[in-house]
Amino acid sequence: SDGGKLLVVPMVGSHWLSMQEVVEKLSERGHDVVVVVPEVSWQMKMTTETYKVVTYPVRQSLEELDRAF
């Protein structure tokens, strides 16, 4: 944390729900935060100006993800 840079790669599900507030606070305190998330996800809807979001492509659609679950 002394470097001021943080790369976050959360898992789908509750991990991100727990981490999101911490990530936002670190960003507000001046840390350079990048969050890497899949293009298709249930809970990782990323629309923020607090930190940078980078998405990566996945093979399945949201419908396929729903069926698999």
UniProtKB/TrEMBL annotation:
<dbReference type="InterPro" id="IPR002213">
    <property type="entry name" value="UDP_glucos_trans"/>
</dbReference>
<dbReference type="GO" id="GO:0008194">
    <property type="term" value="F:UDP-glycosyltransferase activity"/>
</dbReference>
<keyword id="KW-0808">Transferase</keyword>
<dbReference type="Pfam" id="PF00201">
    <property type="entry name" value="UDPGT"/>
</dbReference>
<protein>
    <submittedName>
        <fullName>UD19 glucuronosyltransferase</fullName>
    </submittedName>
</protein>
